[in-house]
Design goal:
alpha/beta; Rossmann fold; UDP-galactose 4-epimerase, domain 1; 2 domains; binds NADP nicotinamide-adenine-dinucleotide phosphate
């Protein structure tokens, strides 16, 4: 059964802005959307056409249960570090309120990949990527898919696969100029991560770890199977080549 009555955690931002816009613009299916915003964010409550925006205290379990009751699914678009605790609070509330599905805010590389992190970089390791509109369209497809096929699954979605060198090659081709390719090794990044950790910069250390896991060829950031994702025919966006995407990006900033 399609998940149509949705609770979205997070109003604006990098992913929430794009994914919520795609969900609210969808007419087939049409979604009933309630968006949660932090009661103590210090900002005025956002007006988002087509959605109800409800201020919540994520730590108020009973209040959260009442707010999510009756929803089919909860989609969390809360930023990485805070989502680690808030997604658990949403899950507890969802379980008590009988919400059928929660999509945690894990839009990232394969966080369970067991690879060691000692590979030296060459610029030739493949990694996978998604544009924000592609993530929005994929979420809409997943909401409509057979529930059993997506239950308790990590879903790989990939728009394009590339290596660092391929990206630089395309920039050079489109701009007609040579780029200097500075080499950096995974070990240098790991040293930086360890220094960030020692200095108490946990978020910077997290980003360093993500960069290594994504780009060192270990496979955690190379979701090859995601290229085959089509939401059982429900994905309504076309994949583009790396060259098409690079051309679009360069046009957007007026470089070509
Ligand atoms: N940003 C990136 O570069 C990036 C890259 C790859 C993947 N991602 C993934 O995309 C997902 C969303 O990240 P994002 O960067 O889009 O988030 P974001 O823009 O920083 O925040 C999204 C929304 O979450 C709410 N929020 C912010 N801080 C919060 C907190 N401390 N507690 C509770 N709610 C909070 C805010 O809504 P209210 O103010 O209305 O409460 C905000 O509008 C994550 O899974 C992240 O890992 C992000």
């Amino acid at each position: 059964m399609v998940f149509t009555k949705l609770i979205i955690a997070g109003t604006t931002g990098y992913l929430a802005g794009h994914a919520s816009r795609a969900i609210l613009a969808s007419t087939k299916p049409k979604f009933d959307v309630t968006i949660l915003t932090r009661v103590d964010s210090g900002k005025a409550v956002a007006f988002i056409p087509g959605a109800r925006v409800v201020p919540v205290d994520y730590n108020d379990h009973n209040g959260l249960v009442k707010t999510v009751a009756g929803a089919d699914a909860i989609l969390s678009f809360i930023p990485g570090p805070s989502s680690k605790s808030i997604d658990r609070l949403l899950l507890k509330a969802a379980q008590e309120a009988g919400v059928r599905r929660i999509f945690p805010s894990e839009y990232t590389l394969d966080i369970l990949h067991p690879a060691a992190i000692t590979v030296l970089d060459s610029g030739d390791h493949y990694f996978a990527g998604c544009s924000l509109p592609f993530i929005g369209a994929a979420i809409i497809a997943v909401l409509q898919m057979d529930e059993e096929k997506t239950k308790n699954k990590r879903i790989s979605i990939t728009k394009v696969r590339a290596t660092m060198n391929q990206i630089v090659d395309i920039y050079e081709e489109l701009l007609g100029t040579k780029f200097q390719r500075a080499q950096i090794t995974s070990q240098e990044f790991l040293n930086k991560r360890n220094a960030d950790l020692a200095a108490g910069n946990a978020f910077a250390a997290l980003l360093d770890g993500i960069i290594v896991g994504e780009f060192n060829g270990c496979g955690a950031g190379d979701l090859v199977d995601g290229l085959a994702f089509d939401g059982d025919g429900l994905l309504n966006i076309k994949r583009k080549t790396l060259k098409e995407l690079t051309t679009e990006a360069l046009k957007k900033i007026g470089t070509i």
